[in-house]
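Extended Data, panel c. Modelled sequence:
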Amino acid sequence: MGSEMCIRDRLLARRGSALDRSPAPLTSELWLDRPFSRWVPAAAAPLARGVVDLDRDAVDVYPRGGAALVAVVSRGLGLAQTRNVQRYATVLAVGVVVIVVVGVVLR
């Protein structure tokens, strides 16, 4: 009985070790490791750089320009605030006259 167990254990061990060995295509994942780890990133890198350049140079220009405009207007309004109500009224009146003149001329 002891020798039978030994033979069976050897057969099972041999069979298990044969099953544990993977065929070559499976160990290298059907030979797709090299293309996916080298060629695909190499091909996608210029496209990714182009997207980053487009985003920086075309899309992000508008928010940056708007922020710069707001900063300039804010600086100008900060300098114009003198707490002189008479000057505020004069600037408002001149602005209304300019708008009316432009409206009449463009009609």
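The chain is about 85% helix and 0% strand. This feature is highlighted in the accompanying rendering.
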